[in-house]
């Protein structure tokens, strides 16, 4: 019984993580990039567009993703 519940919750978590884990990055111009992250609300994915710029001193993020789970994949993609 506990094993079945555990597997159910793992599947539920992974389904939610993949819906919210989508990250799209596109080059705008020069050193400017636009990225889109998604959050799932009542079964519907909602996008949020943001931007970052690459400078000689580092990266300037204009906005951040929906939640903290989406920040690391974005930072890993920028590196």
Q: How much of the polypeptide forms β-strand, as a percent range?
A: 35-45%
Shape: elongated
The tally of beta strands, per DSSP, is 4
- Mean pLDDT metric: 78
List low-pLDDT spans: 4-19
Return the domain count.
1
**Radius of gyration in whole Å, from Cα?**
16 Å
Succession of helices and strands: HEEEEH
Q: Provide the helix percentage.
A: 25-40%
Report the sheet with the most strands, covering strand number, pairing sense and barrel closure.
4 strands, antiparallel
Separation, N- and C-terminal Cα atoms: 44 Å
Side by side, the strands of the main sheet go 1-2-3-4
Q: Count of helices? A: 2
Which structural category fits the helices and strands? alpha+beta
Structure notes:
The chain is α+β, with helices and mostly antiparallel strands and 79 residues long. It has two helices and four strands. Strand 2 and strand 3 form a beta hairpin. The radius of gyration is 16 Å and the shape is elongated. About 20% of the residues have low confidence.
